[in-house]
Amino acid sequence: EKEVDADRRLLKHDARILDRTTVGDLVVRYRDAISVAKRDAKIEMDRLSRFLKLPVAKTTLSGIDGSAFAEYRDQRLTEVSPSTVNRELAPLQHMFEIAREEWGLPIMDNPLKSVRRPRNNPARDRRLHTGEEGILLSAARHSNAGYIEPAIILAIETSMRRSEILEMDAAHLSADHKRLRIPQTKTHQPRTIELSGRALEAALKLLELFDVARPSRNAFRLCWERTRTRAESEDLHFHDLRHEAISRFFERGMTMPEIAAISGHADFRMLARYAHPS
Questions:
Q1: Would you name the residues annotated as active-site residues?
Q2: Percentage of the chain lying above the pLDDT 70 cut
Q3: pTM of the entire structure?
Q4: What pLDDT shows up at residue 73?
């Protein structure tokens, strides 16, 4: 009866389109129409492009269910961390919601909603050990990339994220060079931070280098890894410098609202996860 209704165009949507459309078709449309407009567009688009190479991408929408994504989840957990798996599943779940609500595809249920998510990695509490900052900066000075040392200093002084440092521009400095405007942030909330003398010196050095050549995220990551290895700083992520900065703010007696204004945290509970005063 449904097929007859479909032939007579009596149904709002022709369900047979699900037999002709694959998950990969949906991924391509979402990647090129939705992901491309996001802040971290390249990262998400690369993830979706990798997903297109998997067998599940060739499954039609009429034949897809949660079990296929549960299998994908389990396979990826043998290769990457639970947090990475959750970041990969999130846009796929959003993709099906967009397909249902905005693209008019007659998908009854979002197959990702029934897929259990792995528990995220525990919050990191890695801080710089005694004397480690000096060793790290010394290793940075021996790098061929002059930007890594001032970037490390700026992260420790201001708690700025790597992406915020890489997108810094001379126009973001105040006229008296005492403040720095960060217009593009992870939370989409611009903020302005005060610069210490040490932070200003590092920022000006970076801006001078960026005028000549601004490194890509990948180039910065590789340079950081070489510096970290040279300094023999085991299990130290660049993002840990943000933890270090915020913990130092707490040790100086700064209040939660004061620190949040610098770090850009809208949720004090998330800010507390970064605080590991010694």
A1: 161, 186, 239, 242, 265, 274
A2: 92
A3: 0.70
A4: 95
